[in-house]
């Protein structure tokens, strides 16, 4: 049996429901295509991690330049996600999804040909914008495909399992590609994935009605992008001990953030979905999503630098070293989806945060003490299971808690917060790993160990908040089936 048919059969057996007007044979392929789009988006975050040293040798630049090569993607991705849900409603989720996938494939070709580091940073921003078009539109498409709550949760688990495989494949694929053809090859892998995704979601069957009256505040969105970029620049400059640069960027970020807040108060179509933010229990779930992105992406940034530059691992060896963390994300979301369908999302969210806290703490202590790899592998495995428990459950929780008719906006906001956490993870943990050894006179691995312990502390705080929210609020009721007409309301 061909792999595509195997995945389609898995999707069909797991969800067991056909979209009205869609043939039984077509529906599972559409779900796999939607999941592959998210797979590609996540792959581009993880595949670059093991290519950092080769990228630095090829194009030059400092740790700050490498941070921007990563955060150029996540800044654009996270900030534009704030309006991408509304854009999916306005133009039709299927149009935005297909357009984002097409731009992502073309932009990846340009990244592979980038002549310099800062050209690559700009192109990574383009990829981030394309990724922002894909993610909330994919959630809106899944919601329309599966309006019944239990089957929707199972569909999200398939989506998370296929896309979660990107975390498993990313470091290994990146290591192999860098070893064979250098860092440029890690971008070329996106081109066939984009082509396959477009083929799977083509045709009139995958369709969401547009809502032309839904507005997007372009000025507010631009201010949000600028505030996030300036704040990230301040943190990266802090890591390089450029104090004047840090002060200027930080001051500009505060000023831009103030302008954004003022614009939001006056806007008739605010960037931040107020109804979603005010939903009971939503703040705790969003904070948890940011913590997962902070710890995961920060660890994927600082650990390869340590493993390759200080401990002498090859690119392939670094990818293999991450297997204990990445493998659980490929299979555990299916189990999590079934668990969420039976018990609700809050328990798996809390369990995932606790595992991520323990894993990050174990990794930090191992790196700080210079203990053998087996101890690091145990921490990586705990973190991997934590991520694979938390993310599918958080996705379902956000959709469940969102007010009726705001699925696209809720999905966009949740993923924006996740990318904000990822951006802060790279900027803060990268700065901590760089500054700490200089300040304390210690070794570079002490800085990386301290950065991972900081990630553990962040996850512990968010786990406490999620636990407190669980005690204060009742378990959320199962979401109501969303009809196409009601779902598209602003």
Automatic annotation (TrEMBL):
Tell me if Transmembrane is a UniProt keyword of this record.
yes
The Major facilitator superfamily (MFS) profile domain extends over 30-474
The protein here is known as MFS transporter, DHA2 family, methylenomycin A resistance protein
Q: Which GO terms describe its cellular component?
A: plasma membrane
Where do the TM regions start and end?
29-48, 68-88, 100-120, 126-146, 158-181, 187-208, 220-237, 243-262, 283-307, 313-335, 347-369, 375-401, 413-436, 448-466
Organism phylogeny: Bacteria, Bacillati, Actinomycetota, Actinomycetes, Kitasatosporales
* A Pfam family that the UniProt record links to this protein: MFS_1
User: Region (Disordered) spans which residues?
Assistant: 470-490
Tell me where it resides. Answer: Cell membrane
List, alphabetically, the PROSITE patterns matched: MFS (PS50850)
Q: Which UniProt keywords apply?
A: Antibiotic resistance, Membrane, Transmembrane, Transmembrane helix, Transport
- Please give the biological process terms from Gene Ontology that the record holds: response to antibiotic
UniProt-listed InterPro entries: MFS (IPR011701), MFS_dom (IPR020846), MFS_trans_sf (IPR036259)
Q: How does it sit in the membrane?
A: Multi-pass membrane protein
Single GO term (MF)? transmembrane transporter activity
């Amino acid at each position: 049996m061909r792999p595509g048919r195997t995945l389609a059969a898995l999707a069909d057996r797991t969800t067991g429901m056909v979209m009205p007007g869609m043939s039984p044979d077509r529906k599972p392929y559409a779900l796999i295509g939607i999941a592959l789009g998210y797979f590609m988006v996540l792959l581009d975050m993880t595949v670059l991690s093991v290519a950092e040293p080769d990228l630095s040798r090829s194009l030059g630049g400092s740790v700050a330049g490498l941070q921007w090569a990563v955060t150029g993607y996540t800044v654009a991705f996270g900030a534009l996600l704030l309006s991408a849900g509304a854009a999916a409603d306005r133009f039709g989720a299927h149009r935005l999804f297909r357009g984002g996938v097409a731009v992502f494939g073309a932009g990846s070709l340009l990244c592979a040909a980038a002549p310099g580091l800062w050209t690559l940073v700009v192109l990574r921003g383009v990829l981030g914008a394309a990724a922002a078009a894909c993610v909330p539109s994919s959630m809106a498409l899944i919601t329309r495909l599966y309006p019944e709550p239990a089957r929707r949760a199972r569909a999200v688990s398939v989506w998370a399992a296929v896309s979660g495989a990107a975390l498993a494949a990313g470091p290994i694929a990146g290591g192999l590609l860098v070893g064979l053809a250098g860092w440029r090859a890690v971008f070329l892998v996106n081109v066939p994935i984009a082509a396959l995704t477009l083929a799977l979601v083509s045709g009139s069957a995958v369709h969401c009605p547009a809502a032309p009256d839904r507005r997007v505040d372009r000025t507010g969105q631009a201010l949000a992008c600028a505030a996030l970029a300036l704040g990230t620049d301040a943190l990266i400059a802090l890591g390089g001990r450029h104090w004047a640069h840090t002060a200027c960027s930080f001051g500009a970020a505060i000023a831009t953030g103030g302008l954004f807040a003022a614009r939001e108060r006056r806007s008739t179509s605010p960037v931040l979905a107020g109804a979603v933010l005010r939903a009971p229990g939503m703040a705790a779930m969003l904070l948890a999503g940011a913590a997962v992105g902070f710890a995961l992406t920060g660890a994927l940034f600082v650990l390869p630098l340590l493993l390759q530059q200080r401990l002498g691992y090859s690119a392939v060896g670094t990818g293999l070293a991450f297997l204990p963390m990445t493998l659980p994300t490929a299979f555990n979301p299916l189990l999590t989806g079934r668990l969420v369908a039976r018990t609700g999302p809050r328990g798996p969210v809390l369990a995932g945060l606790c595992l991520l806290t323990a894993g990050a703490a174990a990794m930090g202590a191992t790196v700080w003490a210079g203990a053998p790899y087996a101890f690091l592998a145990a921490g990586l495995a705990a973190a991997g299971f934590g991520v694979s428990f938390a993310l599918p459950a958080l996705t379902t929780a956000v959709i469940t808690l969102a007010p009726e008719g705001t699925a696209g906006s809720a999905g966009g906001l949740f993923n924006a917060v996740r990318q904000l956490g990822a951006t802060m993870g790279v900027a803060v943990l990268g700065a901590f790993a760089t500054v700490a050894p200089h300040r304390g006179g210690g070794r570079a691995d002490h800085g990386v160990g301290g950065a991972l312990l900081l990630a553990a502390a962040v996850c512990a705080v968010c786990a406490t908040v999620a636990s407190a929210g669980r005690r204060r609020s009742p378990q959320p009721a199962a979401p109501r089936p969303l009809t196409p007409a009601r779902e598209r309301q602003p």
